[in-house]
C-alpha cells in the first residue's frame, strides 16, 4: 500500500473521494485551484501542493476530478504548472471527471506521448456515493491500466472496465441518458396519477418494489412528490449531458429518438426559466403542459 | 384467521397467490375456467368450486385474478353462474387483475348495488413476486375496504392504498408507463455504448449501483445484453398498456409526450413482427434503426 496518489480537484466529489483514499491508507497529495478546499484535507493526512506539476511529482497514480473537459485539459497540459510537466515516466493518470469521449481519447493520446498511461473512469452516485465509497465507476482504457487502477478505484466504489479509451466517458453519457429519460417517465406517471385523483406520494410508494422501481423513482420521485426542486443536479446540466450524448451519437451514426425527445423537453424547461432547478423539475415543465394543452 | 377467501382465476399469477394464502392459513375456495388449474391447488388445501357463484358462497373476501376487464366482468356479473349471484351481503371483492380504471369504477358501482364492497388492487412483480409474496400491490377504494383487505394482501406482497375506486388500476397504468419508457431508455443507452465500441454487458454492469440503476436495467437490460427476447411480457401487451394509459389520460386532459413516443415505438416494433417477443425486444426495433437511419 505504498502507491503514492495525487488528486487534482477537491470539490464536492473530489474531497470525499480523497477521504476514502486516505482512510484506505494511501499516501495522498492534493491540489485544488482554490487552495482552501485542498487544505481542508490536510487534517485528514493529505499533503497540499501549490501546482498540479508539484502535486504529481511523487505520484504513481494521478486522479483528476474536475468540472469539465476544458478544465481537465488545462490542469493536465496547459502552461508551465500543468501536471504533464511533473509526471514521472509510467505514471497512471485516472480522469474521474465527466468529459466527452473524444476529449478522453485525445487526453489518452497526449499522455501516451508523455510516457504516461490514461484511464477514463467517471462515476455515478453523487456526493453520498462518494462519501460512502459506493460510486459506480465506469472505466475505459487498456486492460493493464485498469488492473493497476482497480485497488485504488475500489477504495471509492465499484469499478467496471467497459472498453478502450473513451469508453468510460461513453458509459457515463449512457448513464445520463437513462437518468434523464427515467426522470421523464416518473414525472409523466406521477402527473397522470395526480390528474386521475390518486395520491402521487402513495403511488410512488406503491410502485417501489415492482418492475417500475429505480433509483430515480426513489430519489427524484420523492423530490417531485414533495415539490422540492432545490438544485443538486440541474436542468441545465441534464440538458448538456443529453446533448453531449446526442453529439457523441451523431459521430457514431447512432439514432436515439427517446433521448432526442427528452433533450427537447429539458430544453423547453430551461427556456421556461428552470435551468438552475434540480433536473427532477422536468416534472414542473410537464405539469405546465397539462393546463395549456401544449403538445 | 377464519376469514374465508375465494379466489377466481388460478393462472400464472393466481396459482402462486393461492399458495401464499393457503400458507398464511386462510381457508380458500378456488375456481378456474379450465378446471384442472384449480384442481392443482386442492393438494395444497384449497376447495375447488364448479362455478364462480358456488366459489364465493361462503367467502368473506373474494379475489379475482383474471386476464382483462372483459373477463372480470363476465366472471363477476354475466349469466346465472356469475359470482354476483352467490355473494353474501357485505362481501369484499378485491380485483387484482389489471383492467382499465373506468372498468374498475363501473364494477365498484355494480358491486355496491349488490351490497358488496370493491377494491381494485392490481400488482407488479410478475410470477417471481407472486411466488415470493413480494408483489407491489396498488389499491384503490374506500379506506375501510383497504383496512379490511390489508392482512390478506400482505400475505401476497406489499399493499399501498393510493386513492379512491379505480386508483389502483390508474397506478398500475403508471407502473406500465415507467416500465415501457425505462426499457426504451436502457435500450438506447446500450445501443449507443455498443456503437461507441464499449461492451454493453460491462456498461450495464457498471451502471448498476449508480443513479441509472433500476429493476428494468437489471432484468430487461440483461435480456438485451444476451439477445434473449423470449416472451415473458410481450411487445403487444406493453403497447396495449401504453395505449390504455393514453386512453385514460385523454379522458383526464393528461398530456404525456414521452408515453406517446414510446407507444409509437412499440407500435412500430409490433408492425415489424416483434409482437410476441418480450417487451425488451424494443431493443431490436431501435437497433434496426441504427442501420437504416430511419427517423
TrEMBL record, chains A, B:
Keywords: NAD, Oxidoreductase. The active site is at 172. GO terms for molecular function: NAD binding; NADP binding; oxidoreductase activity. InterPro entries: 6-PGluconate_DH-like_C_sf, 6PGD_dom2, 6PGDH_NADP-bd, HIBADH-like_NADP-bd, HIBADH-related, NAD(P)-bd_dom_sf. Residues 166-284 form the 3-hydroxyisobutyrate dehydrogenase-like NAD-binding domain. Residues 5-161 form the 6-phosphogluconate dehydrogenase NADP-binding domain. This is 2-hydroxy-3-oxopropionate reductase. It comes from Aquabacterium olei. The lineage of its organism: Bacteria, Pseudomonadati, Pseudomonadota, Betaproteobacteria, Burkholderiales.
